[in-house]
Amino acid sequence: MSTFASLGLSEEIVSALTEQGYHTPTPIQQAAIPRALAGMDLLAAAQTGTGKTAAFMLPSLERLKRYANTSTSPAMHPVRMLVLTPTRELADQIDQNVQGYLKNLSLRQTVLFGGMNMEIQKQDLRQGCEIVIATVGRLLDHVQQKNIQLNKVEIVVLDEADRMLDMGFIDDIRKIMQMLPAQRQTLLFSATFAPAIQRLAQDFMHQPEEIQVAAQNTTSANVEQHIIALDNGRKRALLQRLILDLDIAQVIVFCNTKQSVDQVNRELNRRGISAQAIHGDKSQQTRLETLSQFKEGSLRVLVATDVAARGLDIAELPFVINYELPLNAEDYVHRIGRTGRAGAEGIAISLMDEQEQKIFNAIKELTGNDLTIERIEGFEPRWWGDTVSEDRTEKLPKVAGENTSTATSQRRTKSTLNKVNNRGNKSQDSKDITIDCQHIPGRTRRFSRHNHPQCALLQRNFGAQELKIRI
Question: What pTM, to 2 d.p., does this model score?
C-alpha cells in the first residue's frame, strides 16, 4: 500500500498530513505526485472529491521548499507559484488546505478573490509570498495596480479549468499566461478533457503527461443516488419531510436560481429548520461566514446555487439534495460530489418534476448510470400517468427515461421490505408502513392527514445507516 513518503514527499510535509489525519494517498495523488515532482507538465482529470488539491499542491510544496526562509524582506519571498481558480469558494478552500500543508515549512501564501478589501490583499502581496491562490478577475485587478510581479513564477496551476472556460475566462487566462516565464511547470486539472481543454493544453503546456484515474464525468461509487418524481408544486413540502423525517443533521440543497434559493431558504426557516442561503448576490463576507457556520456544524441546511458545487469540502457530509436538477448535466456530477468524499459514504436525492425529464436523460447519458426513477407515498406526480386501481398497478405507464419494468420495480420493493424487516424493525406498524409503499404505483386510497402511512425512504434514519436499501 502506497504512503505519501513512498511517493517522494519529505518528512515535513508527511508529518503535516499525518496531523490532519491523511495517511494513504488517493489514486489521483498516487498518479500525479511523482510526475509533478519530476517537473512534468500535467493534464489531469479525476472525479470530484478525490483529492485533486493535494495532488497538485503537495509536489509543488516539495519543489518550493528549497526557497523556504524566515527573512522579513519581501525580496526574499517573490511569487513562485500561482494557482488560478474559477470561483471564490474554491480559492478559499484551497487556501485553507495549503495552510495545513505548510505547517512545517517557512513558505508564505495568500489568497486573492473579489468581494474582499483589496488593501488587505495588497499588504499581503507587498510583504512577499511564494504562493498565490487567486480568481482570474481579482488577480488581473492587482496586476493592473502593479501590486504583484509574476516574473519569477515557476509553477502555475489551472484548477477546474473546464469551469473557467465555461465562465468565459479564456481571454483573461491567455493574458495571464503571457505574463509568466516561458520556463515553468504547468499543471492543468479539469473534470473533462473536452476539445477546448485540449486546445488550452496545446497552447500553454510542454508535452504534458495525461492522467485520468476514472472515466470522465462518472459519479463516486460511495454516493447512493435517488431520483424522485413529483409535481413541481410539491417540492418544498417533500424537501421539509426529507430533512425532518430522515433526521438529516447536515445537507446542501441545490437550486438553479438565486430566486429559488431565497424562496426555499425562507420556507425552511419559517418551518423552524436552521438554514442559510449563498449565491452570487450575497456579499463575499456573508458567504464566507455562512460557509464557516456550515463547516462547523452549527448550520443544518445550506441552500445554494452552483457557486457551492465546486470547491466546497465538508468532511463526511451525509446528504446532498437537488431541489432542482441542474441546467447542465456536468453540474450534477459536481453537486453530488460534495458528499461521499475521500472514501466516506453519502446520499444524493434529486427532486424531478415533469419539465426536468430531458435533463434527467442527459445526466444518465453523461454519467452512464442506470438511474431508476422513484416515487414517494403521498407525493405521486400527476404527470406520471392516469390513476389506476391497486390491482392494476402493473399497467402503469413508464416515465420517459425509465428502463425498468413495473414487475421488476415491484420485486425490488418486496426485496427492500425483507431487508427493512431484517434490520430488526419487526413491529406490525412498521411492516404495514412498508407494505403500503409497494402500492405507490397508481394507488387510489387516500389517508387523512393524521394517519398517512410513511414510506420507507421517509422513515427516520433510513439511508443514513443502511445505505444499500432502495425503495
Answer: 0.62
